[in-house]
Amino acid sequence: MYQICALRRHLLSMIGCISLLLPLAACTTTSSGVSSQSRSVQTTNSTATVSTSSPRVIAIHTLAMGGFKPMLVIPGPLGLLMYPPGATGFAGLPSLAFYRYSDQRVETIATAPTEPNGQQGGIVDANYSGDWVSYVSDDSSQSNWALWAFNVTTGKRIQIDSQTNEGSHATWESQTSNAADLVWAFFSGSPTGVTSQLLDYTYASGQQRTLDTSTTALLKPMAMNGSAALIVEVNVTNSNVSTWIQPLAQGDAYKIADVAGVNAWMSSRYAVWDDPHTGTTALFDLTTHQFDAPFANCLRPAISESQPYMVCVQFASDSWLLVHVPDGAETPFDEGKASLGDGGAIYNGRAFFIGPTGDVQYFDLPSQ
Length: 368
Prior knowledge:
The protein is mainly β. The chain has two helices and 32 strands.
């Protein structure tokens, strides 16, 4: 259910509860008739052809936000975290915006720091789950990062960690979260080597703890579900990559693949991640431990917790895809328009994305 949304990765990979009942006054609706397609799926054991037997119609709705056109949208129980226009490459975003379902209003919830010399810093990493938005601010030289959490219900803001706290050589890596926990990593270099640390902060208790420390690999948290985090390890000697599951409770991390991706998502049943080099997405079943790669010919996957579907982008056909899990049947929508939009995220059975006009659009996932 929870996805890592690191802005640095997003900017560099441009290739690649209760149902949310939004008021009718806040949206318009368009319908697009699309049919599912057969395709070959390469698995670790075999090649299978799958298809659906009947066409499916996806009714796409557009949220009216008074002309506000975000770069990216991350849905949650109370509203939408949005990256506003104005990204400046590695410097990040000037601010973060939040759209509340209750009053259909867009507000600014965080701003980038301004340095003593007047230079503007940026927000380089943000995520939203439960009541909390977690984000990272940095200065223009990327040498003074700080990790923050903002409660969208109470307005409380907490500094969780910072480069000042961890030392001048501490380099920010990435963060991800669920409704209860925030997991992040940084690494520190010295003449004797590199030390990478993976940490956890529990919102309810305010307690921080170390999940893992490595001197042989950089640890990169990518996504979370309610009980574990998806971690990429990059070997500091040979740059080999691997993907791991790190339980939040007691238990050691375990490796699930000798490959890794750029964008990732987890539900309680599956972990998915993409490979921009091949234009494909891999699927790992957390129950059976079956690894299916490539599972779908698309990028930027988001997988539903409650319905058997994944949403992703297929740049070859310039289409969004609704992919049935686990058989992989694909239903394209917004064909020929996907490159004009961006994003793609799921909360509680509703898929959100940026449409071809730059507006936030959504549709409800089928139940089966």
